[in-house]
Amino acid sequence: MKIVRYSSPDGPAWGVLDDGVVLAAEGTPFTDLRTTDLRVGPLDEVSLLAPVTPRTLLCVGRNYRSHAEEFGNPVPEEPLLFLKPAAAVVGPGADVVYPALSQRVDPEAELVLVIGRTARNVAAADAWDVIGGYTCGNDVTARDIQRSDGQWTRGKGFDTFCPIGPWVDTEFDPTDVAVSCTVDGERRQDGRTKDLIFPIPYLIEYITRFTTLEPGDVILSGTPEGVQPVEPGNTITVEVEGLGALTNTVVAE
């Protein structure tokens, strides 16, 4: 099932993508979502929103060896975690705002894990049971601010700095798929999830040992090498093989 969230005359609504058409849905994702026969419209005519509104956005830094090395950073011995504010989340087609405070903004293509049920102290062997699905994400980063601050909250946390979408695929296999980023059609990042330093089950166990995750919360699993800056006017597309593509345009503040 591909779960979407879209803009309707009555506000944000849930839907399901079926053969290129969005059908209205009732209930709540990961609990009692039910597809109806009401046709919202073809996908390209529906205004998609971020497919979830997470309470917690946990991100994994330097989870590809090649990405750590390209910036001259050591490969972490344990997952390097940081948080993004909920206000950073935007959906497909939304603008990424290049803040006036920054001189360098980088997109980072990532596979996103979407939590499907309350998760606390989950063993790695049970990790797949608490994942409700997967989507694409862009861990946008003001690199100069990240470096100058010495910690990552501001550099990673500006409004619009976490595009996610276009949908949540509940049946996707994330074991070995390509994760890529293109800017104005130029391929910049191209990695594979099999190269994650800390694989998905390990991340779920590690994270849920210290915090509770709720349905709709997300984990951005890390970005491969090839990170380069963007400028206002650029169009960024993050794609996860077999999952979908997430496109956003950079605008000046």
Can you put this structure into words, describing what you see?
This protein has 253 residues and is mainly beta. The chain has five helices and 19 strands. It has helices spanning 65-70, 127-130, 143-149, 153-157, 200-208, and strands spanning 2-8, 11-18, 21-26, 34-42, 48-49, 57-61, 80-84, 89-90, 95-98, 105-106, 109-115, 131-138, 141-142, 162-169, 178-183, 186-192, 218-220, 235-240, 244-252. Strands 1, 2, 3, 4, 5, 6, 7, 8, 11, 12, 14 and 17 form a twelve-stranded mixed sheet that branches. It has a five-stranded mixed sheet with strand order 9-19-18-15-16, with no helix packed on it. The chain has a two-stranded antiparallel sheet with strand order 10-13. The mean pLDDT is 97. Residues 57-251 form the Fumarylacetoacetase-like C-terminal domain. Keywords: Metal-binding. It holds the Pfam family Rv2993c-like_N. This is 2-keto-4-pentenoate hydratase/2-oxohepta-3-ene-1,7-dioic acid hydratase in catechol pathway.
Quick summary of this structure?
With 253 residues, this protein is mainly beta. It contains five helices and 19 strands.
Keywords:
12-stranded mixed sheet; SH3 type barrels; Fumarylacetoacetase_C_sf; metal ion binding; 5 helices; 2-keto-4-pentenoate hydratase/2-oxohepta-3-ene-1,7-dioic acid hydratase in catechol pathway; Fumarylacetoacetate hydrolase, domain 2; mainly beta; 5-stranded mixed sheet; globular; 2 domains
Q: What topology does this entry show?
A:
Layout: E1 2-8, E2 11-18, E3 21-26, E4 34-42, E5 48-49, E6 57-61, H1 65-70, E7 80-84, E8 89-90, E9 95-98, E10 105-106, E11 109-115, H2 127-130, E12 131-138, E13 141-142, H3 143-149, H4 153-157, E14 162-169, E15 178-183, E16 186-192, H5 200-208, E17 218-220, E18 235-240, E19 244-252
Parallel strand pairs: 6-17, 8-14, 9-19
Antiparallel strand pairs: 1-2, 1-5, 1-14, 2-3, 3-4, 6-7, 10-13, 11-12, 11-17, 12-14, 15-16, 15-18, 18-19
